[in-house]
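Input record (one chain):
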Amino acid sequence: MAVFEPRIRDIELRDLTITQQLFEGLDARGDAIAIIDGPSGDSLSGYGLKDRIQRLAGGLTARGMAPGKVVAILAPNVPDYAVSFHGIAYAGSTVTTMNPSYTVPEVHHQLLDCAAVAMITVPALVPLAKEAIEGTSVSEIIVIGETFEDYLGDPLQDQAPVDLDDFNVVLPYSSGTTGRPKGVMLTHRNIATNVDQANATNPVRQDDTAIAFLPFFHIYGMTVLMNMFLARASCIVTMPRFDLEQFLGLIEKHRATRLYIVPPVALALAKHPMVEDFDVSSVKVIFSGAAPLGPETEELVGARMGATSIQGYGMTEMSPISHATWHDATRHGSSGQAVPGTFCRIVDPGSGADMEAGEEGELWVKGPQVMKGYLGRPDATAASLTEDGWLKTGDLAVIDEDGFMFIRDRLKELIKYKGFQVAPAEVEEALIGHASVVDAAVIGRPDEDAGELPIAFVVAAPGAEISEAVLAAHCEDCLARYKQPTEYRFVDAIPKSASGKILRRFLRDELKAEMSA
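The corresponding structure, as predicted from the sequence alone:
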């Protein structure tokens, strides 16, 4: 077995719940502001945030909704999201987080699947919540800004007892490598350890501030911003949804020092003229994750912002981080090196044989941040986790001699053209490299002779004059013939998830409908 070892082989497994770890930071923060609502400016100090968490935990316990129960949060990023998450966790219960853009059937499915007994939401989502809870175990809807205050009871002084290695503190939902969203069972040990692993690669300081637009319902925003920043006695400014102008304004107003972003935002920061209208000189580090970022874009955004531009890699099933660019070792285009205590293999998808440095295969990961499994899905768990704890990520990758990992693409997203394998991410990065292109997505179209033909969906820069012929000439200069798109479609936007991943299935469905017609 060829195993790639991390720079730091071991990570200390501290006997703290994620909320006890958070309280360390809030106590250190003290009377200084810890969390700010970006749009309104309302804020909570370290002590104030801790007090609300303890009071919510006490209130939930007194009402019989804790411990051991599942409580759903359906809300955008606001300060009371952190209160909700950690109030539930401190009371010894389980949080299940939901995308506020979900439809009624999606919310209903998740509530049924995890057997939630209560839901915390915001006023705008109450009608949807009321419809979605019908036929589920949810008996109470708690509304932030309205009935939320009624649930704040006497402070719970001590963490409700839980098994750090077995109790599911959070159940985010993920499709994993395939299929309908499944509950990912993450323990206190998983989340708390991953906070320490992430901080070891790029230490966050008490004087750091970040703008938190990455949704807290998603594991990236949950672990890196809501948990790591607050546990490190730093400050976060919440945004309910991403808006470039507001984002830049909050950076300027609060002198943000570190930005945690996704590739679409990196593209905007690198190319949008609006950036020049704001003072972003306070920014020192820009960290991109959730999807691969090409080396050219990574360098460009750093140069334009006058900051160190780096990236990392992870997935919900890993709490989420397995790789990150260390503060002292940057290699543009790479997702960085394994975080402490994380071991990797590159496995041939066909033969199952281990690959060596520089060879491409499926990335397998093992470490204390890897999930217990999928809730109620032993079949899906067995398909993703080996008996000895290796998680099959479903991502094609290469690890070089120095341990730097490069994501090539998703296994299931590879385009097979006349026996060749075309990675959409590679073609997309080439297209985005053109000055008149701000975004792109590539999928395969079924073809009787070739198997599949690469089709490109392109978003042109405002006011740019660009044609299929221009892009074809551009791709001819930077891509092998078999990788070049056979068709270009100009669109207004590329469909993406909240975490910035391209939703290729929507493009495939559109293409399939056209072909059927």
